[in-house]
Amino acid sequence: MIINKVRDTIKRHNLLNDGDKVILGLSGGPDSVCLLHILNYLKDEFNIKIYAAHLNHKIRGIEAQKDAMYAAKICDIMGIICFIRAIDVPKYCEENNLSLEEGARILRYNMFFEIKEKINADKIAIAHNINDQAETVLMRMMRGTGLQGLKGIEYKRDDGIIRPLLDVSREEIEKYCEENNLNPRIDHTNLEDIYVRNKIRLKLIPYMSENFNPNLKESIARMANLLREDSDYIEEQANSAFEQVCEKKSQNIISLDIDKFLKFHKAIKNRIIRKSIDFILGDIKGIEQKHIEDVISLFFESKTDTRIDLPRGIRVYKKNRNIIFTNEELVEKKINYNYKLPKSGYIKVKELNAIVESKILSVKEMKNITHDKYTKCFDADKVCGDLLIRNRKNGDRIKILGLGGSKKIKDLFIDLKIPREDRDKIPILVDEKGIIWVIGYRMSEDYKIDKGTKNILKVSFKLL
Amino acid sequence: MIINKVRDTIKRHNLLNDGDKVILGLSGGPDSVCLLHILNYLKDEFNIKIYAAHLNHKIRGIEAQKDAMYAAKICDIMGIICFIRAIDVPKYCEENNLSLEEGARILRYNMFFEIKEKINADKIAIAHNINDQAETVLMRMMRGTGLQGLKGIEYKRDDGIIRPLLDVSREEIEKYCEENNLNPRIDHTNLEDIYVRNKIRLKLIPYMSENFNPNLKESIARMANLLREDSDYIEEQANSAFEQVCEKKSQNIISLDIDKFLKFHKAIKNRIIRKSIDFILGDIKGIEQKHIEDVISLFFESKTDTRIDLPRGIRVYKKNRNIIFTNEELVEKKINYNYKLPKSGYIKVKELNAIVESKILSVKEMKNITHDKYTKCFDADKVCGDLLIRNRKNGDRIKILGLGGSKKIKDLFIDLKIPREDRDKIPILVDEKGIIWVIGYRMSEDYKIDKGTKNILKVSFKLL
């Protein structure tokens, strides 16, 4: 019965391939001993080779020693190679400021992956069962989680971890061990989250099963399986959306396109934000849904230049049509340039990666010129001294063509809603007297062509 | 505090529009009385008009009477119009074989929607709170549910139902009633799922809150909100996928395109199947995930002609590249036709909605004819007697061109993998001696053009 269940699980989730080398995590407790016995029974059927790995965690001295001896013995009987490593887990945890539970898990999994690499194995089999599944899902639900957490423990992970016992209950496992005289060690340390998990195991689940649903474990496992599929699907969609929305990624900075972002569904928006933060921090601990909501509001914000701060030093800037995440100070490099422009000729403004060209023409020649945002004509004889192309300076003013009086360039930029960090990128054409043209935006009244104009200065600007 | 919370909920979920007429479901218990009081306070701010509706369910005689009187009185004090209707719920439930809980809910909601229509109202406000939310989600989880169930009670539904108290706890509501001397009626009947819900309320949630998370209700509500977004998103995607995959819908039959179906993610596949069954049955009660899995396997099935049965009389057929759901016998209408084809001329085969054309040509004229699957030439002088176009008959045989010996048409159809129900749709050209051409598939050796051929019979087939 239990063997059939495990066989079904292996087949349905495609846990084993022909010829796989499998390392089994063997604590010596009922779950892992049962799995070892069953995999050993099925090894010819699936054509796999089994190894076991045991960590002597040195947590309770002689008991830990006995666990290791038991693991060695049972493998010896079955003719299975068993890797045993002894590590002073308490010392490691103290040095790294970890709970015993966390530390032991890290060291155990490190060991599995090291052995996997060493013997070139394909899979690492862990003996989690359906009770563990129900406990995990309930624990996460009570702590507050989203879809990601509710999907529970996975049958198979990309890194080679497989869990063939995940459809089997603890009761079935214990019965199997008894029937097969396996005499597993009772793990008194039970390192996993001992207090919380034991309460869930010994009190909550029995109460729920008795009062609400005798098949509670199975119902929760089925729910977790359905939610896993849903979660995988949304993650797949969110990954693709993230790549579309993401304009720029480098070590500590990520930039999202606002317009593209806004087209997605709220469920995807949420995940794009999480992925962005995860990209910067490596995880999203300490980031709550409230923070995600704040960032999403920023996308709808009408101001061009805003910033919010999230926990763990994440800053989120709104700049033009982008939202930028970073954990560094976002320093805009100060641009400064000042080029002499010949009356006829051209220069390159390398700060803007652009070319400015000038030409002196007769009034007649002007007829054929197409004027646009970046090509303008002026009265050449009104120009005083050298022509310069430069960025704005404090106190700059212009007599805007068509309007009376003069206006501060600073105010002009504010009116035009040009974000602060872009203002130095706007080139200005000046002579000795003042501003001739704020390139791309406004011309000066003082240099305009009129009836008396004899010579034309044509200037054009082109981004390379 | 509680008023601010309700205001936030209303704004965040856009529960009210300027000028809305709102009907409040008023039982007389703390929740609905509190909501009435708060909405009455906020009515000018949101510019809404409030009505109340109370159902005297006649379940506990004098107590139900007192509830109704209390509802009338409190509305009178606040100057709110209150619709009160008395219905013999126990009698209705007996007649319709419903539990008191179900019956009362149906009648209550019927009443709300009737009044809504009558006074042309926009919204129906129901006083569900965050405790109800946590209880509902836990109940569904313990019974086994998917994403759809875990998303819990909704703030706002398309039919006008709104739940402005959904972020407020029962404790806050009771405190508010006390502070405002509202003296609500304590609902001793508490019709909703009394035993299960009371156990969740009085035992399970307190135990969980004490032992695992003091903010359990809030965590579960937050989870439900996140899952609601995820669920909405997947449903949206699944609806669009369903429309793409669905080839044909009529009253009791739905046909899905296998190739299109297989391109979707498992999470979407699941939902397409559920939607198909829901289309036939109106709901999917009694349909379990196991059944969905069985149907999905059918899509991968290599046999062309299979069927599985689901509960409630649903039959699922695999026919060619389609999966068909129906709760009727899938009867293939027997097609029978037999047309005389002139040597030069044409006939219409109305059973196939097609035209067959024939012509006698000289050998020289044949040069210009393009032969294809549906246009063939034969030796006209080898034809004996009348030409007929008909469907297959028992015992039909053909001497296939290029192969020795004769073959049963039945075996030919099997070889060609033509599904049983399509076999009568394949027209056959015969003369008095036998089969000349299985149109679209094979020609007979006996009528082929050879060196001695003088006259050509050209036949072509065209679907209209």
TrEMBL record, chains A, B:
<dbReference type="GO" id="GO:0005737">
    <property type="term" value="C:cytoplasm"/>
</dbReference>
<dbReference type="Pfam" id="PF11734">
    <property type="entry name" value="TilS_C"/>
</dbReference>
<keyword id="KW-0963">Cytoplasm</keyword>
<dbReference type="InterPro" id="IPR012796">
    <property type="entry name" value="Lysidine-tRNA-synth_C"/>
</dbReference>
<protein>
    <recommendedName>
        <fullName>tRNA(Ile)-lysidine synthase</fullName>
        <ecNumber>6.3.4.19</ecNumber>
    </recommendedName>
</protein>
<dbReference type="GO" id="GO:0032267">
    <property type="term" value="F:tRNA(Ile)-lysidine synthase activity"/>
</dbReference>
<dbReference type="InterPro" id="IPR012094">
    <property type="entry name" value="tRNA_Ile_lys_synt"/>
</dbReference>
<dbReference type="InterPro" id="IPR011063">
    <property type="entry name" value="TilS/TtcA_N"/>
</dbReference>
<dbReference type="InterPro" id="IPR014729">
    <property type="entry name" value="Rossmann-like_a/b/a_fold"/>
</dbReference>
<comment type="function">
    <text>Ligates lysine onto the cytidine present at position 34 of the AUA codon-specific tRNA(Ile) that contains the anticodon CAU, in an ATP-dependent manner. Cytidine is converted to lysidine, thus changing the amino acid specificity of the tRNA from methionine to isoleucine.</text>
</comment>
<dbReference type="Pfam" id="PF01171">
    <property type="entry name" value="ATP_bind_3"/>
</dbReference>
<keyword id="KW-0067">ATP-binding</keyword>
<dbReference type="InterPro" id="IPR012795">
    <property type="entry name" value="tRNA_Ile_lys_synt_N"/>
</dbReference>
<dbReference type="InterPro" id="IPR020825">
    <property type="entry name" value="Phe-tRNA_synthase-like_B3/B4"/>
</dbReference>
<keyword id="KW-0547">Nucleotide-binding</keyword>
<dbReference type="GO" id="GO:0005524">
    <property type="term" value="F:ATP binding"/>
</dbReference>
<feature type="binding site">
    <location>
        <begin position="27"/>
        <end position="32"/>
    </location>
    <ligand>
        <name>ATP</name>
    </ligand>
</feature>
<dbReference type="GO" id="GO:0006400">
    <property type="term" value="P:tRNA modification"/>
</dbReference>
<comment type="similarity">
    <text>Belongs to the tRNA(Ile)-lysidine synthase family.</text>
</comment>
<keyword id="KW-0436">Ligase</keyword>
<feature type="domain" description="Lysidine-tRNA(Ile) synthetase C-terminal">
    <location>
        <begin position="387"/>
        <end position="459"/>
    </location>
</feature>
<keyword id="KW-0819">tRNA processing</keyword>
